[in-house]
Amino acid sequence: MYCGTAEFVCAPSAVRHIPVLLNECMGCLQPERGGFFADLTFGGGGHSREILEASPENQLLGMDCDPDAAQRASVLCEEFSDRFQFHDRSFSELNKVSGANEFDGVLMDLGISSFQLMEPEKGFSFRLDAPIDMRLDPRRGIWAAEFLETASEESLIRAVREYGEEKKWRRVVHAIISARGTGLLSRTISAADVVSKAVGGRSPRQRIHPATKTFQGIRIAINGELEALALRLPQAVNALKPGGVLAVISFHSLEDRMVKRFMRKLAGRPEHKHDSRMLHERSVFGEMVTTKAVIPTKEEVESNPRSRSARLRIFRKTKMEEIV
Ligand SMILES: C[S@@+](CC[C@H](N)C(=O)[O-])C[C@H]1O[C@@H](n2cnc3c(N)ncnc32)[C@H](O)[C@@H]1O
User: Fold this and answer.
1) In the chain, what percentage of residues exceed pLDDT 90?
2) What are 229-283's pLDDT values in tens digits?
3) Position in ligand 1 atom list of the atom nearest CA 43
4) Does residue 41 line the site of ligand 1, with CB under 6 A?
């Protein structure tokens, strides 16, 4: 069993990440039946632990592109030594660490964990002053400050308008370009101020910080999160055994739409309203376990507000053939 190579860095001990839609995920993965599972977005290991504790028969492969997740995984490595393996790598490398038709269940819980959000050095939060970094894997890619200073106007628009879904995107993009060279775009709080002023500040009734959407868009852009998801969903299904289940939790409408369309297509459903092909003309690799996205209960949202935008979609593979 492999338990990661990253140098362990202590996360602030007071921070906890509460796993989202935990019961709903277990309901569809059914880890109590015993099997081999993969948690491709290990984070704090909340879902992983639940799977490992559900049956002494269970084996679990955990992955996370953030090297700090390896420190949290080391706790499970000690506790479940012969049943748990962890790789501090992106899930895009799944096929390097596993073969096809291996897993009874694969989980992807997208986005970032509370550990990442609350770690100032990671530069995700507009509440904690630090260099604005935002890379999920600090070993790769450009940091957000560099993106803000150098990205083309087109890339900024895509980040703020499309990925951030910021209605006042024109003003935000203009403000970012105007702030270039002033040093304001290099740190979280000063960059958030630039965005906040551009959208007219925070109104008394506004619950979320005015920079929330723009920060989300920048994070998605610099980490190539949508591109990674589009490329890796087929790989995740190929890694399942026939009968195995893929569960994906997303927090962004673009991600959720991508997951929904992907699963519909594999289930042989029309890809869009005008798709008039008959069922036998479409390839069918499995079925959608629920037609609608599973959302958190009112109680879960009250106890964990971070869960409010979570959407869980579930697909069961029925065919052995690989998706290309
Ligand atoms: C919402 S958290 C997962 C929380 C986890 N389910 C738990 O219960 O603690 C998402 C995690 O996915 C990781 N992640 C995001 N994109 C990834 C990728 N392409 N490959 C591997 N991990 C990724 C992030 O680093 C983060 O730790």
Assistant:
1) 80
2) 999 999 999 999 999 999 999 999 999 999 999 999 999 988 777 877 777 777 8
3) 27
4) yes
What is the C-alpha separation between 188 and 178, in angstroms, rounded? 17
Q: Looking at residue 122, what DSSP letter applies?
A: G
- Going by the DSSP 8-state scheme, the letter that residue 131 receives in this structure is B
- Over residues 8-27, the pLDDT tens digits come to 333 445 678 899 999 999 99
Does ligand 1 come within 6 angstroms of the Cβ of 109? yes
**Which of 41, 52, 96, 98 has the most ligand 1 atoms within 8 A of CB, as the residue to mutate?**
41
Among 19-33, 63-77, 272-286, the least confident range? 272-286
Name the closest-CA residue to atom 18, ligand 1.
90
> Is 113 in contact with 249 (CB distance < 8 Å)?
no
Q: What is the largest CA-CA distance in the chain?
A: 60
Q: Is the Cβ–Cβ distance between 129 and 141 less than 8 Å?
A: no
The DSSP string of 150-214 is: H--HHHHHIIIIIIT--TTHHHHHHHHHHHTTSSGGGBHHHHHHHHHHHTT---TT--S-TTHHH
Q: Which residue has the tokens 């390896």?
A: 70
Q: Residue 112: CB within 6 Å of ligand 1?
A: yes
Going from the Cα of 51 to the center of ligand 1, the distance in angstroms, rounded, reads 16
From 75, 136, 139, the mutation candidate for ligand 1 (largest count of ligand atoms within 8 A of CB) is 136
